[in-house]
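Ticket #644: bound-state structure for adenosine-5'-triphosphate.
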Amino acid sequence: MVNWAVILNISKTHLLTKIKQTATAALGVTFGIGAYITLVCFMTGLNAMLDNLILNQTPHVHIYNEIKPSEKQPLTMYGNVKQSFSIVHSVKPKLSQKNIHNALPIITYLRNKKEVRGVLPQVKTQIFYIAGSIELGGNLTGINPLDEAGLFNLGDYIVEGSAEALQNTDNGILLGIGIAEKMALKIGDRVQVSPINGGVFPLKIVGFYQSGIADLDAVQSFTKIKTVQRILGRTNNYITDINVKMYDIEQAIPLSKKIEQQFKLTAVDIKTANAQFETGTKIRNLITYAVSITLLIVAGFGVYNILNMLIYEKMNDIAILKATGFSGKDVQLIFMSQAMIIGFVGGILGLLIGLGLVSIIDTIPFKTEALPTVETYPINLDPVFFVIGFSFAMISTFLAGYLPSKKARKIDPVKIIRGQ
Amino acid sequence: MSIVLEARHINKYFKKPVLFHVLKDINFQIKKGEFASIMGKSGCGKSTLLYILSTMDTDYEGELFLNNQLITNQSSEHLSVLRNKHIGFVFQFHYLLSEFTVFENVMLPAKKLGEKSLQEIEYDAYEKLKKLNIEHLAQKRASRISGGEKQRVAIARALINNPSIIMGDEPTGNLDSYNAENVFNIFKQLTDEQGLSLLIVTHDEDFANKTHRIIQMADGEIVV
Ligand SMILES: Nc1ncnc2c1ncn2[C@@H]1O[C@H](COP(=O)(O)OP(=O)(O)OP(=O)(O)O)[C@@H](O)[C@H]1O
Ligand SMILES: [Mg+2]
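RESOLUTION: The complex was predicted; output attached.
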């Protein structure tokens, strides 16, 4: 039977009479946990921000008609050369249309799938922005403004104007901010665009678009699908791209495979498109945990040292306790509980300090062109980190306390009493 | 009269630095209410014997009985319970927990035993201190009282669980004759009034002569 009240009372007295050492040991833990919380909240906040930057803008599955050489060259149709080795020089892509054949039925088909959250058709084309005698090359993408705003946060990247304004204006254009600056245009102005196959169309500027990627902002503009189709002189089934957003991002891979097989189109899923991105996230996490664990190991050694010292100083006490009927286990628990109290107090303080630092970081302004929606440094305050941090503190002090307390358990009182 | 402590054929060897037969076939009994003293030249093995009898040293041959129960080869866990409940130990050097108050030092073995409520323990501890005329020291830190006072605190602590036997290794060795006399009187009173058994190692001839029985040791053997 363990008499906890007595054991805790003894460890409390030991700790309080050695308050300086206790505080040093606890501060080591505090520092480790505080650093862990700060680092992990900041790093994962950064990760989440960068993830969102990509994920929000990137469709889960992007379907388009890729221009590439035919897999089967005419030669292979010819039976006589089947057994022989043939070389075809200067293979050229097949002349085919850019748009997706039968786009409208495919869209309907995808919309009816229950794992699909939204299907957004787009019409992409190259145009020139015309300012006096200067022609600037660029891309014009026809979209459904409201759907894009709802599913891909288009609104976050409109610095002036709105998606609604584009929706409600015939011949409206959401102009890339880079183009607007080059051509000194403001909202309400008209900009003339010209498709590659000729003609000039004036469009009314309803807003500016800023993705944060300067090269993109200098070429990219948006308008309604209908407007692009009219500029290109195409009917309303002319669709060049279909973007799909899923409920569960994991479903993107099977869906893209299925579409490729079924419709003979190119379908790229987000995982494949951004494989290198996950590597970055993984490495940042690795750094966070490596640094935190290093700090905690250092803190653990601090606790280990101080406990060792304490046990050395308390040899007499240990001998007396054992002589008066405390078992080795009781003595071990006395010192274990001291380690755990140090871990507990240090850990809780560390969590509070971490929380404090994180709250401060959260208010530091972080303005960057690249991220128009971000105002302050990103922080991810996840309660799970606090649970992990606290467990860290308890586990590391437990390990640090185990060996010294085991030593105390084994101390032979007779040796100590004789030694006097 | 019932037998409290019995040693049968106790032998002990120290193996380092050379094999040394320190206790040779020790046999004796302590009866209830008996006040016995052990005398002998320095180095004859008195302390060694006492550590074995108090169950702190388990590395010996032979058999040891406490209240007629064999305690040789019991688990260390069980031995510490026995020590807590049945054996009070008073050292030559006043062994107290220096960071605790006198009162806490006295109460500690009773709290460990956990048979009484805190109020009862506090009452008992206070009674023991009063019996030893040191109740005024109760709230002082154990490191801030004199040697003679510490010795009496140690005796109060040894008494707190009303043990079957109290063992002392030169408990008066560090005291002046007045305080030594005082400690002897306390022991005497405990045997006479409460029938407590005592086994005290001493070099003090006067002290020993006043006890019921003297166990004389020489070279690891009992001679008388
Ligand atoms: N750990 C040990 N290893 C080897 N020999 C020891 C050890 N402890 C004690 N001895 C020897 O055992 C003998 C008995 O020691 P013990 O302490 O029992 O003597 P004592 O009778 O109590 O003497 P004193 O009256 O001086 O206290 C001594 O000769 C001592 O040198
Ligand atoms: Mg001795």
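RESOLUTION NOTES: Chain A has 16 helices and ten strands.
TICKET STATUS: resolved
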